[in-house]
Amino acid sequence: MNIRMISKFAAGAAIIALTAGAAKAQESVEVLHWWTSGGEAAALNVLKENLQKEGVAWKDMPVAGGAGSAAMTALRARVTAGDPPTAVQLLGFDLRDWAEMGVAANLDDLAAKEGWDKVIPAALQDFSKYDGHWIAAPVNIHSTNWLWINKAALDKAGLQPPTNIDEFIAMLDKFKEQGITPIAHGGVPWQDGTMWEAVVLSIGGPDFYKKAVLDLDPEALSGDTMKKVFDTMSKIRTYFDPNFSGREWNLSTAMVIEGKAGAQEMGDWSKGEWLRANKKPGTDFVCIRFPGTQGSVLFNADQFMMFDVGDDQRDAQLKMASAVEDPGFQIAFNTVKGSVPARTDVSDEKFDDCGKKGMKDLAEAASKGTMMGSLAHGYAQPAAIKEAMLDVITQHLNGQLTTDAALKRLPEAVAAAK
Amino acid sequence: MSFLEIKDIRKKIGNVEILKGINIDLEKGGFLVLVGPSGCGKSTLLNAIAGLLPPSSGDIVIDGQVVTDLHPSKRDIAMVFQSYALYPNMTVEENIAFALEMRGVDKAAREAAVKQVAKTLQIEHLLKRRPSQLSGGQRQRVAMGRALVRQPRVFLFDEPLSNLDAKLRVEVRAEIKALHQNTHATIVYVTHDQIEAMTLATKIVVLKEGTVQQVGTPSEIYNRPANLFVADFMGSPAMNMLKGRVVSSGGAQAIALFGNENVKVAMPPSVTKSLADGKEIILGLRPEAITDTGLLDPQVRSVAQIVADVSMVEPTGSDTFVTGKLDGASFTARTRADVHVSVGQKFPFAFNLDKAVVFDPETTGRID
Amino acid sequence: MTTIEPVPVVEPQRQGRTFADGLRNALPKIVLAPSFAVILVFVYGFILWTVYLSFTTSRILPVYKWGGFDAYFRLWSQPNWYVAMQNLAIFGVLYIGICIALGLFIAILMDQRIRAEGVLRPIFLYPMALSFVVTGTAWKWFLNPGLGLENTMHHLGWESFRFDWLVNPKMAIYTVVIAGVWQASGFVMAMFLAGLRGIDGEIVKAAQIDGASNVAIYRRIIIPLLRPVFLSAFIVLAHMAIKSYDLVIALTGGGPGNATELPSTFMYSYTFTRNQMNVGSASAVMMLMGITAIIVPYLYSELREKKQ
Amino acid sequence: MSAANETISAGSARTARYFIYAALIILAVVYLLPLYVMLTTSLKPLDEIRGGDMLALPREPSIAAWVRAWGEACIGVSCVGIKGYFWNSIKMVVPAVIISTLLGALNGYVLTKWRFPGHKIVFGMMLFACFIPFQAVLIPMARLLGLMGLSNSTTGLVMVHVIYGLGFTTLFFRNYYEAFPDELVKAAMIDGAGFFRIFWRILLPSSGPIIVVTIIYQFTNIWNDFLFGVSFAGGEASPMTVALNNLVSSSTGVKEYNVDMAAAVFAALPTLFVYIVAGRYFVRGLMAGAVKG
Fold first, then answer.
1. Domain B240-367 class, CATH top level
2. Distance between CA atoms of B87 and B94, rounded to whole angstroms?
3. What ipTM goes with this model?
4. Which residues in chain D touch residue C191, judged by CB atoms under 8 angstroms apart?
């Protein structure tokens, strides 16, 4: 080997290493998110373009995989390094946990100027504020207790959309007769949890949900109602296709879109995939509340938490927060993403039927007090408890735990994670 | 004044003292051979002279300059290694020129020097080859060339012939000798082979367990070994060591051999002092000092004739070695090649006492 | 009157140690020092830090409030942790055992003066070149009952063929073993091949003259001579088994349920997604203790053996 | 040593050889399957993938998916393919491999040819560093990188890879140089070469096999790393593996398996290339010392 060549090469390489990663744009925001799926990325592009119009460059930091777990690793690394991104997509209790670490920016002035207090639902403000101060700009409100049905399959079965669990099971049986997968599901803990929380709400009603999931009442977690929930989960499990394990949610949605599966229990982000496939609500697919959960909303809101990044980036950060709460953006974003605006003062004119329904349901639930945080998405419990509960739910669904064992394990797991 | 002085060199590695105070002087142009069995410390001493292994105490002086603390490259020495240590990635030419290059000699001068050395060693045709393409003998020459080109104050050789086959070894040995005679270089040479030591050296140092046993010319070492170890180590077949006792015989001292009062030989002339009667001694006789009576040098003054049983006959072509046995002890004699003797026969051996030496079994030292 | 002049004693000129000499003597240590310092800080410092963290109340980010053995109590009361340990035992034994057996087998075949060695060698080696981030999708497909091998067999007419380990919680860990063996056995093969090539041919000739059959030569002479390679392979594989992470995440994500949880995935999820950093650190300390138990005796014997 | 079968009879020898070749070919086919699936899938149009058999050859091979993966596929909000990330990886791998190999060679040189009291302990401690699980060092590493101002930069990432590669590179070179004759070093010392000159002129030029092993090992490990990449290099500076992960997780309702696979092949190409080209030297290099561990 020619040593002289190597030494020149090494010197060159060292120079590359030194110069790379220097240069920073002056007015820019760096955004960490895990919206890499097609519908999500398209929705986010709206925000990117809006900001670019204001002269703020967008530094994208997408970290996909594992429902944001890789993103959380990256975030920890950046915050620990003392160099956090400008804004980070975060959910529920994670916002509080991070704020508790004293790394959040204060958005009070902007919020006061733009009157966020009046237009953002109180249940959501609990999470967008820490210690009474605004720390995050909520982008949207999702709800998780939706059922998406392929219209053609439903028509073929000659059924009306189900309104309770029994009708739901009957519909799945019909789908089975058609030779399609009755219900498309992805066997990933958060998806298992999303289905479970809908079943809890359907079988136990909103009060039971509050008692069991929000208040973690040990008796509710192991009582007869909960037994019925787990039994129902086992029943639904028999309608899955054999390949469900580990499947991404959007692939399950695609199965329903293509008519390979009849229905999917999934949050309203699922609609983004339908729209991207040029399908129309009402004609190609039906969106209903998960049977038996009408009148309640399990919510989950994407928020951009603003991190304390110092004065030089402060202006861009506030511009971004303001852009997020801009009603125009709220409409543009949420019509694509499938969610509803985080502001209640936005007109539903531009939204499709599902969107309109979602906004109506939300307003109703907010007034009735049945707008409750979703467990699977971190709006019901902190991460430790959430994950401990998901462990039990997913192990039960996969047949590793019997129903009785799950009922015993659930309160234990919660207690151990507290 | 001596050119190379080794002053009280000691070396301890861990708790083991490998060199226990070595003192040697060598004149300019001398050929010093360090000889001894493996583990005697000869290589350690050579490494200390080279500067590759710092001694624990003592000094190395070359040409009046204390070099003990100097880096090997600043001692102006050259070394030929047992494995030759040719740089595998360089051609023969580059190998020989490397030391000059390190010393900043310009290219033209280097080439001239390499050419000169290659000519001396007759390796001109090998210059462009790499070490892996050379035979053992060729590598050996290149290794010497690498040392010669430097024209150092002292050459160090670390068992340079041990990797060669027997025939080549004799040839190269002769070449080294010729080289020394032509260049008058000062050489320190390590070997465990006593024939190499005898043929090459102007001065031999016999080492054992980190101490000097004897320093002397080859003939001193051979003929007047300082102790039993040296006597046994130098020479092949080894010197006969015959147990005996001092007795008085007709007013003169004599030695009774083989524990037999009747087998008596005169006290060898090498012993000048008077010994007490009954003292146990060891009589050392080289095999060539025990012969058949016909081979005896007529000039010899003191001879004893002893008849013994023949237990083995080993013809080598030039000589025949005959093993004699008497009263349970055996000795080797060097006789004429055409001697008529066969195993089991009684044979008269002539003991040449002029060449005999006497040792004290208690101190193992030679008695003069 | 004459006076006898004393003969001047000429003291040999002594060349003392200069600063340059001192520098030269220290140079090797100076060269090694940065690497060693870096290792001290970035490995041993971080280990100490992790140990400390396991005794704190850290959840989302490191905090330095003392929490005693709480994290360890939590760790050992997690059913997940026991699953992870049990899986590591199953995975470790099978992964190391099969890799060594298969690697040795292929190496012996490859050592029979095979013509196409130059083609075959990279085929067995290439899996080591690829990360599971790259091959994960292909593997998931391959093992997926609806898309992969089972589907292919059905296409070929073997309708009753079942291969649903990936989605079967009882069998999923074995799919992880399959993929792991696929990745590492070629590397082990290369190690054994190198070992076989390094054996002195005269020993084999001597055995042949002694009348040993081929099988006997391998069983009695060659394989025992490969002992150091077995040891190296074991160490390499053991540390890969303990560190296996990409493999599990790409194939099963730890599922179905928690059926393929390993200590490495456990540690990652508790530290980074479950906001129980102290428990994650405690599990890291446990893993480090496990690694130490394997490596330190090995290092000790290796480094002592070479002393002469 | 090679093949001990000269003494058995011709007939059984032939049967044995058939068995050997059959076994090797079957094994080779099994080992190749994942790569085969990746390659064929990347060449198939989507319809064919969805309808067909995973193992079937493409009916209408097309490199459209490769073109998309390289220059058009969406990663996050930007749709410019993976080519930029490919160069990111190169910028990270090349300096990291060179620096860690060079340092490993120097360390191995010192630990074998310039021994000092305690060299075994130093080596043992460096070796143990190979075995630390990387997940455990992420957070403190992030903190130190932040303090050094290297957070979120390629320089920082290069440094991380160099540090955690040092144990392995030192191990490889130490074992190799252990067998390198001390006499050569002594001869060079007497010839007047210093510490670095001996290394540069005598040892390094003879280290071909072990340099190959080290480069293969380091190149593969660093190129394939995901954890450090995702944690320490943000956004546009991300290495290939992180981008690939994002790409595979990005989909437009219908998962473009062919594009995913094409991107995966791009991510695999450099390491595959290195293994195939240098594979023969790899076994040789392992023979030359690395196996002794």
1. mainly beta
2. 9
3. 0.81
4. 286, 291
